[in-house]
Amino acid sequence: MMEEDHHHMMEEDHHHMMEDHHHMMEDHHHMMEEDHHHMMEDHHHMMEEDHHHMMEDHHHMMEDHHHMMEDHHMMEDHHHMMEDHHHMMEDHHHMMEEDHHHMMEDHHHMMMEDHHHMMEDHHHHMMEDHHHMMEDHHHMMRRTTTT
């Protein structure tokens, strides 16, 4: 077999291998995304549940406190104070939600950046290894063909 034919065949094989590899990577990436998405949903749901229970406990404590105060026949002022407090809590809750949302966005962005760089490094190392393998292969071929 002529060397050009051999080389052409290698190119074809390599091309198909690369296509297969590319599709595999796409599938892998898609799978990882799905898994990650479900994990994040579960995590978010769990956090919401925990937060909800904490808030319920807090609210019950406040109610108990309120009843205690009532037992002491506190005046109107106390009632207004409680209303103010309630509004403050609403504002606080809203603010926390906003902050949390932005924090999560930043976190997600950071994670994506890290992941992207990791993948770049990984790809680069793979390419280097592959290149060295090809060099070795090439030298081996040279040794066997030249008599």
Question: What order do the helices and strands come in, and which of them pair?
Answer:
Blueprint: H1 3-71, H2 76-145
Tell me briefly what this model is.
This is Histidine-rich glycoprotein-like. The chain has 2 helices and no strands. It has helices spanning 3-71, 76-145.
State the end-to-end distance.
Answer: 15 Å
Please tell me the overall pLDDT: 88
How many helical stretches?
2
Task: Give a count of the beta strands, DSSP E runs of length 2 or more.
Answer: 0
How many whole angstroms does the radius of gyration measure? Answer: 32 Å
The main pleated sheet reads as: none
Helix-strand string: HH
Protein name: Histidine-rich glycoprotein-like
How would you describe the overall organization of this protein?
- The chain has 147 residues and is mainly alpha-helical.
- The protein is 95% helix and 0% strand.
- The longest helix is centred in the C-terminal third of the chain and has 70 residues, at 76-145.
- The protein is rod-shaped.
- The mean pLDDT is 88.
Tags for this model:
Histidine-rich glycoprotein-like; 147 residues; rod-shaped; single chain
